[in-house]
Amino acid sequence: MHLLHVVGARPNFMKVAPVIRAFRSHSGVRQTLVHTGQHYDPNLSDIFFEQLEIPRPDVSLEVGSGSHARQTAEIMLRFEEVVLEHGPDWVMVYGDINSTVAAALVAAKLGIKVAHVEAGLRSFDRTMPEELNRLVTDQLSDLLLTSSPEAEGNLAREGVPSEKIRYVGNVMIDTVRHLVEQARMPDIPGLDGDYALLTMHRPSNVDVPATLREILAALRDISRKLPIVFPIHPRTKARIDALESGGVRQLASTSRVIVTDPVGYVESLALQKHARFVITDSGGLQEETTALGVPCLTIRENTERPITATEGTNTLVGTDMELLRAEVDKILAGKGKAGRVPDKWDGHAAERIVDVMTTIGG
Q1: Which of 201, 233, 274, 348 is catalytic?
Q2: What is the CATH code for 187-262+276-332?
C-alpha cells in the first residue's frame, strides 16, 4: 500500500508526523511526503524534523503565497503531476488549508482514494476560507478520520455515509505528548515569574482597525496584572504598526506586553505549558492547551473545535473585551476553567489510523 501524505504549512507537519511514525512498523506500506510550500516557514529546520522524527519532504512543490484561487489552482497543477508520477493507493490530507482541498480534488478526479485526517470539524462560519475547505474536502474523501465525537454528527447531517467515518482521536495531541517533555522555555529577556501567552493572527481580529484597537487596549490592561508574552505573527505586526503611532514598539514600551519573534513548535509548547493562561485565536492552541490543562481564552465568536470548550479548558470570549478582562480576573483568582482531556486524546490516534487503514488496505 502506497500512501502519499500532503502538507502545506507547519501545523500539518505536527499532524502528519505521528502518522508517518506509526506506519513505519508496517513493511507492506510505502510512504511519500509532499510539501506544497503553501506557507514558507523558516522554522522548518533540520532540528524541527529531528524532533518530529520524520524525514524532510520527498517532494516540495514550492507554490508560495497568493490569493486563495491562485494558490489552490497552482497546487492542483503541480500536484497532479506528482500523483501521476507516483501512483499512490491513498492520498492523505490533513486539516483545512488550501493544500488540503486542492490535493483532495486532484486525487478524486484521478480516481485515487482520499483519507482526510481531522475530518468533520465545523465552525459554521462560511466567511472563513478554512470552513469551505473542510466542507469540500469531506465530500470528496473516501475515509473520514475524526478527532472528536461531534465531528461524526456534522458529517452525518451532511449526508456522509457512516461506513466512511472512523473516530480515531486527535493526532495533534499525539505530537504534544511526544514532544512536551522535550519542551524548553525560550530565552525571553524581561520574563521572570508568572506570565500569560498571546497569539493572534486571524483577519477578523487584526484586519478590522476598531476591533484591533479594542483588543490592544484590553491587553494593556491585562498586562498590568501579569506580563503577556506575544510571539508576533508578521502580518499582525504590520497591522499594529499601521494602526498606531509607534506600533509594536509603542505597545511594548507602554505595557508589560513582551513582543518576541515567532517561536518554534517545541518552544511554543513550553510557553503554553508554563503559562497561567493563553489568549489566542488559533485552532491548534485551543487543542494543545486543553491537552496541557492550561486555561485558554479564545478571541473568536465561534470555533470548529467545540469540544475544547464543552469538555476542555477553552472559553470563547469573542471580541467582547470586557468578557476577556472578566475571565482573566477569574483565572487569576483561582476560578478558571479546569476542564478535562477528551476521549481518545491519549497520544495513540495515529496507531488507530494505522489499524483502520491496514484493515481497509489499498
Answers
A1: 201
A2: 3.40.50.2000
